[in-house]
Amino acid sequence: MSVAFVKEPNEDQVEGLPERDLGSDPNFVTERGLDMLEAEIAKAEASLEEARSASDKIAMAMINRDLRYWRARRSTAQLTVPSAETEVVQFGQRVAIRRPDGTVQSYRIVGIDEADPPKGLISYLSPLARQLVGKEEGDRVRAGPSEAEIVSIE
């Protein structure tokens, strides 16, 4: 049999990992989000050095993939600061809504990588954020199965 048909594993060979999806939406970030991107890059660079020192090729491949992702996100980041001269909800602002049962919840509209819904940080692409942007205090918006009233914008 020809060696062309035999695939023997090579110890230096690491299978290519699929790239992380960068998405096609604008990469809006808050100042906090920009800092988070920088921190992720620094963390990945430090991890890469550790993996190199340990000659861990699998870890190096994974970290390099993540590093490409974070660097691409950083290079496309568009720092967006809300205008203080408007009374409508914008990217980067914190908005409090009152649900029909009287519960008040607060959300900050942030970039994709910064979103953490349990901490009240929602992506500007989320259904709730899309409902809120452009609205004013007192406006009603669809929030899940019911409507909620915007009670404050910070």
Overview of this structure, please?
Residues 86-153 form the Transcription elongation factor GreA/GreB C-terminal domain. This is GreA/GreB family elongation factor. Residues 1-25 are annotated as: Disordered. One of its GO terms (molecular function) is translation elongation factor activity. It holds the Pfam family GreA_GreB. The chain has helices spanning 31-53, 57-76, 127-132; strands at residues 27-29, 77-79, 94-98, 104-110, 121-123, 140-143, 146-153. The protein is α/β, with parallel strands linked by helices. The protein folds into two domains: 26-81; 94-153, Roll (Chitinase A, domain 3). The chain has a five-stranded mixed beta sheet with strand order 5-4-3-7-6. A two-stranded parallel ribbon has the order 1-2. The model has no long low-confidence stretch (mean pLDDT 89).
Summarize the topology.
Layout: E1 27-29, H1 31-53, H2 57-76, E2 77-79, E3 94-98, E4 104-110, E5 121-123, H3 127-132, E6 140-143, E7 146-153
Helix pairs in contact: 1-2
Organism: Jiella mangrovi
Domain Transcription elongation factor GreA/GreB C-terminal: 86-153
Keywords: Elongation factor, Protein biosynthesis
